Amino acid sequence: MLSFIGFLPAIIAFRLAMSTSPSNAFFRVYIPVLLCLPDYYRVITPGAPDPTFSQGVALTILIVAIMRGGFKGYRFSHMDVVVFVYAACVFNSELQASGYSDAQNLMFAMLFSVITPYFMAKSFIEPAGMRFEFAKLVVTCLAIISIVNLYETRFGMNVWQLLLGRFFPGQGEGWVVTFRFGMARTAGPYGHALSAGIIMMVGFRLQRWLHFSGAWPDKVKKLQWLPVKFPVLLSLVLTGGFFITFAKGSWLAGIIASFVVAAGRMKNRLAAFLVVLGLLVGIGIPAFSSFIDYASVGRANAKDDNQETACYRYELIQLYVDIALQKELSGWGLTKWPQVAGAPSIDNHYLLLFLMHGKLAFYCFIYVLFGTMLRLLVYGLRIPPPPSNGGSLAFTLASIYLGYIIAIATVYMGGQTVPMLFMLTGWAESFLKMNGRDYSPLGDVAPPGPPPPLFNFRRVV
Question: Is the dihedral of CA 288, 294, 298, 299 positive or negative?
Fold first, then answer.
């Protein structure tokens, strides 16, 4: 019964949505709950799916939205079909592998950690001119978490487990604090430091976009004494929060993603992207070849922990691809896949997704990542260069997708990283669907218009 405290945010969201609007509940309740409360704690409801904090809030917002005629601001796009097919394939694989009683929680997760966040973001952010408010809310939540996480770094104890663990006995005990370089790696409310690294990467990139767009005041009334400007302080806080996760894969992803943003701010952006692409190919191919040599020696011959980790991830592909191909259409399900001795953890989300849910879910997921990123890049090249925040937003979102693409090649994508990705996808879809109109930080809306062509060819009749 103690776990029923998990319904408290949902009750608040329901009352707020009924008294104001589902959109207001999305911003004022769902986003803070998603980012600030763990997704590994569930309300135990016998005979029914067991919701997390954020899933309960998403459910109540969906109910109120349906009661009021649906998601206002929603416009159909082909990505809606891709997201639905992905969610259906994931649920179907577990249904075939384990039956409905075991699959119901996964179905619930697909509905309220994938589909509903996608449609909420698609309907409530861009159509209402709330891109700055959304980004500011994400950045503010993550800045607070970065500061709180200093306790975990210093004392090696997770604040959220200390405060909330007593209400959810037996839950979340598998998420333990890990260490690197002799220091605790902060996980915050995200379960593992690797997941925290991905979320912090998203927050950092959004903060850099806000700073570039002039969305924050230089000084805040209650913080006039600060020796640095407020947006600079936020960037420093999020940089620190990102750093203390000690998630090397996310660090690498964040560094590479920054090149996309930098190229998007150049005067000749197409040439800049060609240079970046050339560098990635020129450096990436030799680096990949060196990595294969480094990782293929086997764990028994590894010289240090870093090489042993690389060897393990390389061996995973050799060990599990053939197993995944045995059920390539529907997958083995969430927990029914054969576990190879000595390789219990699959630290590669692409491989794990293919293994668990089959190739159709895998292809849909790949399209969500790569398809959205490429469409954002092409669109960003077609519209006026920064300082227009529409142009800079396209490159910022594309850089976040690139960060996801790189980071989840070294880690399982779970917890809040899932709804965050699909919220970003909903936001990106509505941004592209509305021709990326340019909003000022003060809320003024520039009149939308068709983007200019990517190449200025002369037309002769």
Answer: negative
> Which position has the token pair 């092409």?
378
Q: Rounded to the nearest 5 degrees, what angle is found at the Cα of 197, between the Cα atoms of 107 and 251?
A: 135
CA distance 90 to 333: 8
Question: Which residue is associated with the tokens 């259906």?
Answer: 88
Angle at 149 between CA 125 and CA 406, to 5 degrees: 60
Q: What is the mean pLDDT of the chain?
A: 88
Q: Yes or no: say if 159 and 152 are a contact pair by the CB < 8 Å rule.
A: yes
Alpha-carbon gap, residue 231 to 126, rounded angstroms: 23
Give the count of beta carbons closer than 10 Å to the beta carbon of residue 227.
6
Q: Which residues fall within 8 angstroms of residue 186, CB to CB, at 6 or more apart?
A: 149, 152, 153, 193, 196, 241, 244, 245
Q: CA quadruple 231, 250, 37, 57: dihedral positive or negative?
A: positive
Listed by start position, the domains of the chain span 71-277+334-433
Q: What confidence tens digit (pLDDT) does each residue in 224-247 have?
A: 788 889 999 999 999 999 999 999
| pTM (two decimals) | 0.91
What per-residue string of b and e applies to 153-170 under the rule 16 or more CB within 10 Å gives b?
A: beeeebbbbeebbeebee
d(CA 25, CA 13): 5
Question: Do the beta carbons of residue 208 and residue 128 sit within 8 Å?
Answer: no
d(CA 151, CA 168): 22
- What count of Cα atoms within 13 Å lies in the side-chain half-sphere of residue 339? 9
Rounded to a whole number of angstroms, the distance between the first and last alpha carbons of the chain is 76
